[in-house]
């Protein structure tokens, strides 16, 4: 396993991070708690010590499951990342990064996770109704109090990070980034590199598209968010799957790897210090060992770019995932 440091956290974090949005169940068609706990514990046994969660993942359920999974394990062996700035009401979420909300959320998260501190604490989404300075100030207070060891921002623009950094440090930036969603290459990646901010790329497998297991007749049940993602609707879905087939052939021929392993390795080789990989059961961790200890060469990078351009000339971004502001959410209730 490869590891890297984040801010003032005591331990280094594995460069592959276990994402736990899906284990919260909400927007992923439900959750199996026993499978989820087993997945987290199996990840730790394999050296993957970085667990990323958030209160909004299942309205607290994901954090509760993470807390159960790491209970009794030496706290200095687990790197826990969670978030603040999302409120929920009647099954709907909306942004709230106010001082009052964050001070409530930190204590709720510490209780659910059964820990005395958070290694990395993110502002989940920027809140257009709250000055960035207010949010940054309360995050800095939590850092000085020792309740958190590093400050992160998630889904922030370069301009928003610049405002935030006038008041508090940013140690990490979490943004969507994968072979199919590359928007951050033009601004976020270079900005973070220039200012010493580590990048956590979430959605490394693009919600399963790059797992190599998707089929054209896939059906997403219940509240599964992929029902709202244009990439999972025909004819785009077929184009993306064709690209995956070609990427899989390249991975096998060049590196004897799966497309999943190459997709995660690509994220790490493109400049993101960490790749978040959503896992729901222990079996999904089997490809983990094949991600470490190698890198993509320049020729492969060019071939990958060619495959993407041929099959997906107009990529679709992850914008559909953005939660509404409180103002818009209030109108919906």
Give the count of helical stretches: 10
Quaternary structure annotation: single chain
- How is the main sheet built? 8 strands, parallel, barrel
Beta-strand content estimate = 5-15%
Give me the secondary-structure category. Answer: alpha/beta
What is the CATH topology assignment? TIM Barrel
Helix content: 25-40%
Give average pLDDT, whole number. Answer: 91
Task: Give structural attributes.
eight-stranded parallel barrel, two-stranded antiparallel ribbon, about 35% helix, alpha/beta, TIM Barrel, 12 strands, about 325 residues, 10 helices
Folded structure, characterized:
The chain has ten helices and twelve strands. It has 333 residues and is of the alpha/beta class. The chain has one domain: NADP-dependent oxidoreductase domain (TIM Barrel), CATH 3.20.20. The strands form three sheets. It has an eight-stranded parallel β-barrel with strand order 3-4-5-8-9-10-11-12, surrounded by five helices. It has a two-stranded antiparallel sheet with strand order 1-2. Strands 6-7 form a two-stranded antiparallel ribbon.
Topology, pairings included?
Blueprint: E1 3-4, E2 13-14, E3 16-19, H1 33-45, E4 50-52, H2 61-70, E5 79-84, E6 86-89, E7 92-95, H3 99-113, E8 120-123, H4 132-145, E9 151-154, H5 158-164, E10 172-176, H6 188-195, E11 198-202, H7 236-255, H8 259-269, E12 274-278, H9 298-311, H10 326-332
Parallel strand pairs: 3-4, 3-12, 4-5, 5-8, 8-9, 9-10, 10-11, 11-12
Antiparallel strand pairs: 1-2, 6-7
Structure, briefly:
With about 325 residues, this protein is of the alpha/beta class.
């Amino acid at each position: 396993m490869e590891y890297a440091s984040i801010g003032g956290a005591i331990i280094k974090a594995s460069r592959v991070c276990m994402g736990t949005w899906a284990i919260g169940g909400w927007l992923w068609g439900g959750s199996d708690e026993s499978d989820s706990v087993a997945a987290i514990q199996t990840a730790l046994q394999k050296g993957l010590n970085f667990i990323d969660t958030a209160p909004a993942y299942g309205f607290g359920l994901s954090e509760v499951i993470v807390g159960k999974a790491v209970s009794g394990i030496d706290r200095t062996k687990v790197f826990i990342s969670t978030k603040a700035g999302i409120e929920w009401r009647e099954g709907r979420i909306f942004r709230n990064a106010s001082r009052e909300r964050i001070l409530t959320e930190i204590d709720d998260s510490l209780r659910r996770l059964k820990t005395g501190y958070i290694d990395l604490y993110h502002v989940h989404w920027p809140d257009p109704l709250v000055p960035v300075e207010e949010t940054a100030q309360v995050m800095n207070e939590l850092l000085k109090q020792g309740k958190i060891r590093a400050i992160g921002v998630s889904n922030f623009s370069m301009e928003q990070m610049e405002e935030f950094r006038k008041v508090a440090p940013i140690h990490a930036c979490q943004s969507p980034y994968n072979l199919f969603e590359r928007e951050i290459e033009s601004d976020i990646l270079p900005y973070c590199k220039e200012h010493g901010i580590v990048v956590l790329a979430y959605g490394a497998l693009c919600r399963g598209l790059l797992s190599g297991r998707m089929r054209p007749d896939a059906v997403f049940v219940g509240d599964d968010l992929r029902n709202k993602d244009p990439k999972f609707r025909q004819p785009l879905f077929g184009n993306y799957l064709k690209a995956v087939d070609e990427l899989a052939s390249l991975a096998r021929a060049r590196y004897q790897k799966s497309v999943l392993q190459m997709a995660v390795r690509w994220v790490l080789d493109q400049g993101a210090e960490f790749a978040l990989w959503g896992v729901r059961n222990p079996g999904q961790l089997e490809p983990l060992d094949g991600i470490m200890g190698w890198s993509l060469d320049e020729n492969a990078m060019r071939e990958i770019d060619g495959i993407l351009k041929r099959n997906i000339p107009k990529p679709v971004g992850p914008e559909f995932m953005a939660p509404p502001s409180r103002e818009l959410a209030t109108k919906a209730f």
